[in-house]
Amino acid sequence: MAVPKRKMSKSRRDKRRANWKLTAPGLVECPQCHEMKLPHRVCPECGHYNGKVVVKVE
């Protein structure tokens, strides 16, 4: 059975674990104002969600 000869430091371990790639969030167009927004969230520009005004934006 393979056993490490020396203890791996926390910084070396964490550097190895930190190398995964982030993906860009999928953006969709708001049907009301046609701005790009995150899906399944209230549009920050117009305040609409699912065809209704949810947040009043000034």
Description:
The protein has 58 residues and is α+β, with helices and mostly antiparallel strands. The protein has a domain at 25-58. The chain is 14% helix and 14% strand. The protein has one helix and four strands. It has one helix spanning 10-17, and strands at 28-29, 36-37, 48-49, 52-53. Strands 1-2 form a two-stranded antiparallel sheet. A two-stranded antiparallel sheet has the order 3-4. A hairpin with a 2-residue loop joins strand 3 and strand 4 (52-53). It is rod-shaped, with a radius of gyration of 22 Å. The mean pLDDT is 92.
Biggest sheet, strands in spatial order? 1-2
Radius of gyration: 22 Å
Helices, by number, come to 1
Roughly what is the average pLDDT, rounded to an integer? 92
Number of strands: 4
- The proportion of residues forming helix, as a percent range, comes to 10-25%
- H/E series: HEEEE
Low-pLDDT parts are none
Q: Percent of residues in beta strands?
A: 5-15%
By secondary-structure content and strand pairing, the structural class works out as alpha+beta
General form: rod-shaped
Largest sheet: 2 strands, antiparallel
Distance between the termini: 65 Å
Organism: Lucifera butyrica
GO molecular function: structural constituent of ribosome
Family: Belongs to the bacterial ribosomal protein bL32 family.
Protein name: Large ribosomal subunit protein bL32
